[in-house]
Amino acid sequence: MDKTRSRRLIAGNWKMNGLRAEGLALARAIRAGAAGVPADLLVCPPATLLGTVGAAIGGSTIALGGQDCHAAGPGAHTGDIAAAMLADLGCRYVIVGHSERRADHGESDAMVQAKAAAGLAAGLIAIVCLGETEAERDRGEALAVVARQLAGSLPVKASAANTVVAYEPVWAIGTGRTPSSADILAVHGHLRRELAGRFSDAAGFRLLYGGSVKPGNAREILALPDVDGALVGGASLKAEDFLAIARFSAP
Ligand code: PGA
Question: Catalytic: 70?
Fold first, then answer.
């Protein structure tokens, strides 16, 4: 879709990695190299490191995000974290519906939608993840699957300003394999058309690609017309790789 390209978002999903010293060193190294990077940077450390990392990037342009939140407000949910708690720690974003959570914790589209809504209610920008499995792709169902996940996972109040969509094919996460540029474009184009059927500001939604993004493939992926950024897992744990990916985001 022809649209004015927004500044791209390069988000690091640290997953369940990092003790305090490592997280602090990584945050400091990213901060030290972030000046002049032509993209918006976001780091999503594990919840245990949000305070430490938040302090290390405080006052910089690097944003902080959580990797998940509960759908409910503060209350009796042992081990969970309310979106308001993330906001209170300085988070601006929350990832919801990552395929690892969908798989490990049985999160359905409806649960992801409720979590995203909770994030928005707390003033956070929700990064809603979706993507097909390898079997679904092999059966030719990738577009139908992501459309169904999009319809079921985006909250009613979603808008381009408060919601980001991350396309992460499950088979590409942590595997070193990525879809072809044509396949990424086909999915992003499909997602954009689906958004257009529901939201008047569909052209402004940021659509991220995620799954084995590395410095070696970031230039090609980030040059694709409907890719507004990347959600980076493994490569976000090395500051130089994360920053190298972000440097390929020149408009
Ligand atoms: P990866 O993870 O970059 O290690 O493939 C991406 C993600 O799961 O967000």
Answer: no
Burial degree of 118 (CB within 10 A; 0-12, 13-18, 19+): buried
Q: What is the pLDDT of residues 76-129, one digit of tens each?
A: 999 999 999 999 999 999 999 999 999 999 999 999 999 999 999 999 999 999
Here the tokens at position 132 are 């097909």
Q: Where are the alpha helices (DSSP H) in 34-81?
A: 50-57
Q: Tokens 């169902």, residue? A: 141
* DSSP H/E element including 208: strand 206-210
CA distances from 53 to 44, 91, 148 (A): 9, 11, 35
Mutation pick for ligand 1 pocket among 167, 184, 212 (CB with most ligand atoms within 8 Å)? 212
- DSSP assignments along 213-236, one per residue: --HHHHHHHHTSTT--EEEESGGG
What's the gap in Å between 248 CA and the centre of ligand 1? 18
210 lines ligand 1 (CB under 6 A): yes
Tell me how crowded residue 52 is: count the other CB atoms within 10 A of its CB.
Answer: 16
Q: What is the pTM of this model?
A: 0.97
Q: Is 134 a catalytic residue?
A: no
Q: What is the DSSP letter of 151?
A: H
